Amino acid sequence: MNEVEKVSQDIYGEIRQSIIHVQHRVQQAVNTGMVQIYWEIGQQLDKACDGKQDEYGKGLLHQVSAKLTAEFGKGYSYANLKNMRQFYRCFPNRYALRSDLSWTHYRMLMRVADSKAREFYAEECAAAGWSSRELERQITTFAYQRTVSQQKTTERRPQTATDKGMAPYRDFIRDPYVLEFLELKPSPEFYERDIEQGIIEHLQQFLLELGRGFSFVARQKRISLDGDDFYIDLVFYNYILKCFVLIDLKLGKVKHQDIGQMQMYVNYYKANMRNEGDNEPIGIVLCAEKNEAVVKYTMGSDNSTHIYASKYMPYMPTEEELKKELRLQELPLAKEE
Asked: What PANTHER family does the entry give (predicted)?
């Protein structure tokens, strides 16, 4: 490669990055502008229909739609105007709208009837940079209801993290975890290492399923105690909680020995692996089946150690299966008007 070719290649690379950067900023500006104008339209329509009968509102939206469509095109159909009105009603505070979220994101969020769940998905989506497809997956698998802090259970759970003002550990633990992306096929030759290998091969999807703030640290982390070696299946670090997260995988039902082993791992990390400023580690026993009584009585009344037993589902469950697993009586999705 001669000098001209080398310089042209370098300049091409720099120009290419500049173009991509500007394209991204333009696209983001367009998305933000679209969200803002749709909110304004929704606000105006809702105020015009406020206190009026349903037939009045339908007629008004049909007429406004016809006029806007004639001038601006098909983006202002009756169905779209109805969505814009619903958008305003779901998100009445204009200043709380997130520039990171597109209109597609907001349309999905509008399907969530529970306002707390809706806010959870919006916050997590913006913070973690979820695509619209990932947001849809999180909603349809009830990620909010699978978060331990939202569940009513008799199992012993630590309520808060170690530092004042910090988010509770329970806000970052799910039960169950949905691992359909591993594409595991049931087999009598199925081993824990198959799950572990699947997680490593689909690490990005697993990190999304874990939630916000997780980063991968190690696989089969060896610790030695007086000449005996032990191996922790997976180690992560959560930069929001500022702590290590240790995960052990179990094929069958969780046993008291599994929890005791995790207790040892957590105690070891607490004593030997924490850096200055780190909080106490979390231990998660990820199992195919749970026995709440075993977890409860193994842990006893000890609230000083953050250990959880969570079930994993290696397939995409149906809504009915998830409702049964989470003891939900009603779907947390909004009904179409």
From this structure: NUCLEASE YHCG-RELATED, UNCHARACTERIZED PROTEIN YHCG-RELATED
With contact defined as beta carbons under 8 Å apart, do 42 and 87 qualify?
A: yes
The mean predicted confidence, pLDDT, of the chain is 86
- CA 107/CA 309 separation, integer angstroms: 34
Does 186 have pLDDT greater than 80?
no
Residue 216: the pLDDT is 96
- Domain residue limits, the chain: 1-97, 102-140, 145-326
- For the four alpha carbons of 275, 276, 277 and 280, in that order, the dihedral sign comes to positive
**Taking the model in full, what pTM does it have?**
0.78
Alpha helices in the chain (DSSP H): 3-49, 54-72, 78-90, 103-109, 115-128, 132-140, 143-146, 192-201, 203-210, 256-272, 292-299, 319-326
Which among 92, 148, 184, 196 has a CA at the least distance from the CA of 309?
Answer: 148
* Alpha-carbon span 324 to 92, nearest angstrom: 33
* DSSP string across 130-155: --HHHHHHHHHTTHHHHBGGG---SS
3-state secondary structure of 268: helix
Q: How far is CA 125 from CA 108, 129, 145, 224, in A?
A: 11, 6, 16, 40
Assess contact for 242 and 278: CB atoms under 8 A: yes
Bridge partner residues of 289 (DSSP)? 253
Query: Which of helix, strand or coil describes residue 181?
Result: helix
